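dumping the sequnces here before i forget
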Amino acid sequence: TQLLEQSPQFLSIQEGENLTVYCNSSSVFSSLQWYRQEPGEGPVLLVTVVTGGEVKKLKRLTFQFGDARKDSSLHITAAQPGDTGLYLCAGVEAAGNKLTFGGGTRVLVKP
Amino acid sequence: EAGVAQSPRYKIIEKRQSVAFWCNPISGHATLYWYQQILGQGPKLLIQFQNNGVVDDSQLPKDRFSAERLKGVDSTLKIQPAKLEDSAVYLCASSLQPTGLVTGELFFGEGSRLTVL
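..and the predicted 3d for all of it:
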């Protein structure tokens, strides 16, 4: 069982559609990050959230941190082929000091 | 600003052979991480260094994996002897501060892809 469970594991949509990716845990996190990874490259940070209930927007991407700081979601509006990639959530437990990654959600946006 | 450099990009070896990966972090970054990413999974932390000291190596298979960060700059990760299940991408990352104090950004290299036959 992973500390951070991501769902769905794979998502294939048409350009222009919306999508939501979820990151859930039974643990409380002091902070949570979202990364995007493209084939053959390392993950790149998209956002960090630290406050329960926090919502951050990055152009067409909206990130939300759950009130209890146990879960997070990433919503993409009007997806484009350039949004294709592996989306990873990663968190530091409230009582820990290690950044742990979820299993990732692979997103494919077809033109 | 130069990013995290890793080499080699690809390595194919037979089981029971040894392999070493090298990482040069971003200049000034005190914290260095090695992650293992098996195909279809998220990265798993193997070892975290703060300068040249080990902060966390709880998930490093110490019977076959070793890592060092001499002089607190670049680092090497060695596997000896390799097993089939070691086939993965080995990602090196660095950050200004260690996670747990301030969750800053981790900067990743492109990774070293290992195939064990």
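The two ends of chain B are 37 Å apart (CA to CA).
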